[in-house]
Amino acid sequence: MKKMYMLFILFVLISTSVIFTGTTKSAEKEEFSMKSKTPAKALVVIYSYTGNTKAVADDIVKRFKADTVIVKAKEYDGFMGGTKASINAWNEVTITDIKPETVDMSQYNLIFLGSPIWWFRPAVPLWSFVEKNDFKEKRVILFNTFNSRFKSEYIDKFKKLVREKGGQFHDHIYVRRGRWYAQLNGEELLEKFNKILDEKEDEYSGIISQGHK
Ligand SMILES: Cc1cc2nc3c(=O)[nH]c(=O)nc-3n(C[C@H](O)[C@H](O)[C@H](O)COP(=O)(O)O)c2cc1C
Predict the structure, then answer these.
(1) N or C: which end of the chain has fewer CB within 10 A?
(2) CA R_g for the chain
(3) What is the CATH number of the domain that holds 200?
(4) Domain of residue 184, residue span
């Protein structure tokens, strides 16, 4: 009976990883870090599996003239990657091998951390990034894309981790993409995210220019 139950759970995890992604393709290979032309005061750290969160991250980078760090997690690449992502997220894992592991954030006043939602919580590689880095005196904004929902208890846990690492959690912004026929296309996703950034622009720009309070 127990074996049947375990098989059922495994089946759910595998099938949901396919349903959630719609495709098992990883985000395209790119450089790990990109510097803005002028010395930036904001940094965008991004983990994206199928490119949606990366697309909205690019908007933040442009708007706030931020530097970018793209986090890669090899455990979730390749044939069984989506299934491993699903199982680890389900088990509330916070550590996986990531590249880069650490980033010198001393020049930045505001750090944006972005990822998809996996099993109601930010994706595992983003937790790993926070675990492995020093956020002392940094303001942090979490941004997510997802299909249907996240759970606020996990966002609270994420905030707690940021605080334990010395950071000040400032905001959580996100776009719900919807499911199946009701899902936003790329253009609609960016439009929705841009509306949020329009509302937040003055607030975030103030932090970027003034730094920690
Ligand atoms: C393993 C896995 C678990 C997911 N779990 C959720 C979930 O709990 N809630 C949700 O709304 N979407 C969930 N999704 C969907 C993604 O959050 C959504 O497609 C997101 O926009 C993908 O962002 P990306 O393209 O940057 O990877 C899941 C996707 C995967 C791969």
Answers:
(1) N
(2) 17
(3) 3.40.50.360
(4) 2-210
Q: Tell me how many domains the chain contains.
A: 1
The three-point CA angle 117-120-121 to 5° equals 60
Summarised one tens digit per residue, pLDDT across range 49-89 is 999 999 999 999 999 999 999 999 999 999 999 999 999 99
pTM score of the predicted model:
0.89
Ligand 1 geometric centre to CA of 153 (Å)? 17
State which of 19, 26, 49 you would mutate to test the pocket of ligand 1, scoring each by most atoms of that ligand within 8 A of its C-beta: 49
Mutational pocket test of ligand 1: of 12, 56, 113, 146, the residue with most ligand atoms within 8 Å of the beta carbon: 146
Q: Which two tokens stand for residue 126?
A: 């983003």
106 CA distance to ligand 1 middle (Å): 31
Ligand 1 atom at minimum distance from 120 CA: 8
Residue bearing tokens 């609609």: 188
Summarised one tens digit per residue, pLDDT across range 3-55 is 666 666 666 666 555 556 544 344 444 567 888 878 899 999 999 999 999 99
